[in-house]
Design brief:
Blueprint lengths: L5 E3 L5 E3 L6 E6 L2 E6 L15 H12 L7 H15 L4 H7 L8 H16 L6 H12 L17 H12 L8 H10 L3 H13 L4 H5 L6
Antiparallel strand pairs: 1-2, 3-4
Length: 216
């Protein structure tokens, strides 16, 4: 298992810290993509800027919705998602979130809801609702949150389904490529992936979010 250099992004989630590293080819789920290795370090870095590649992808999808059907756009999303998460397994990325001093209840519930979508194709709350909650109560203040049964809380049954999904696919920890492929197989999966990446690692201003129906 490789160590990964991660940093905290503006909304408090952790993701890859650098892109200047040798490339390898990762194959899985019927497609081939390039994945970047990170430096052998997992030192926590201060809150920094957003991921410009993710910002660009979200902006393109927002202004040109038909791009969602373009294979080149899909391949670019896959490539940048692998870079942004920065780990070999999605479960490892989830574990790394505990290193963020800004991790709060809303962050945990959003991650759980995202895993629920990957596993079942459904969310308990829309991405529109999530971004409103995270920007209103969650940004840079995770430790001070007090959330009591927020609307749309993932049920124990669905959490068990998520656990079963992680343990399935013939491997205890499916490779991140396979996890993203599973994500894309869900209805509206590519759309959900792009918007989720924008929430985790991008700027995703409230105004631009409300001006379109992508994440509703």
């Amino acid at each position: 298992m490789r160590e990964t250099a991660l940093r905290v992004y503006p909304r408090g989630f952790m993701g890859s810290a650098t892109k200047d590293a040798p490339m390898r080819t990762a194959k899985g789920g019927g497609f081939t993509v390039s994945q970047l290795y990170r430096a052998d370090s997992n030192q926590l870095e201060p809150l920094g800027s957003t991921n410009p590649e993710i910002d660009s992808l979200y902006q393109l999808m927002s202004t040109t919705p038909l791009v969602i059907g373009d294979i080149g756009f899909k391949e670019k999303v896959i490539s940048e998602a692998l870079v942004a998460f920065g780990t070999d397994h999605l479960s490892s990325w989830v574990d790394y979130q505990n290193k963020s001093p800004y991790l709060g209840d809303l962050h945990k519930e959003f991650i759980t809801d995202t895993l629920c979508f990957i596993a079942t194709g459904k969310r308990r709350m829309s991405l529109f609702t999530w971004i409103s909650l995270l920007d209103d109560k969650g940004r840079n203040d995770g430790k001070n949150l007090s959330v009591k049964e927020p609307r749309g809380l993932v049920t124990e049954y669905e959490k068990n389904m998520i656990s079963s999904w992680f343990e399935g696919h013939g491997r205890l920890k499916p490779h991140i490529v396979d996890s993203i492929n599973e994500w894309l197989m869900q209805d509206n999966g590519l759309n959900d992936l792009v918007v989720t990446l924008a929430i985790l690692f991008g700027e995703f201003k409230d105004g631009s979010f409300k001006s379109n129906k992508i994440a509703s």
